[in-house]
Amino acid sequence: EETFAGQLGLYMLFILRLVQGLCTGGEIGAVSTYITEVAARRSMGRCVAFISITANLGFMFAREVIWAFQSRIGEEEMLTWGWRWPFLLAFIPGVISVAGRLFCLKETELFEQEHVALREEDE
Description:
Blueprint: H1 4-38, H2 44-73, H3 75-82, H4 84-103, H5 109-122
């Protein structure tokens, strides 16, 4: 017999996983664009490869966290309530990423030039 809380948990898992996937995909695309605008030509290949390597390492680490939770609390508990913990832990690097974007990364010269050109066109 399924309860409302069980159904709500299932829907939350689906929605959170979908949002997490969309955010990750968007971040990889944005970082690739940023790197192509700021990296030196001689190191651009390494920089772009590093994006793929670190993304895959992140996915592997996330899977290891889920495995650790699942082996610690059991598969049944993981399905009923334990799935929330990996999402809560993912909040930490998410906040660090947003803070880094807001306070540490400046806009590229190419973006600034395009922004000024658009502003001049509007006037």
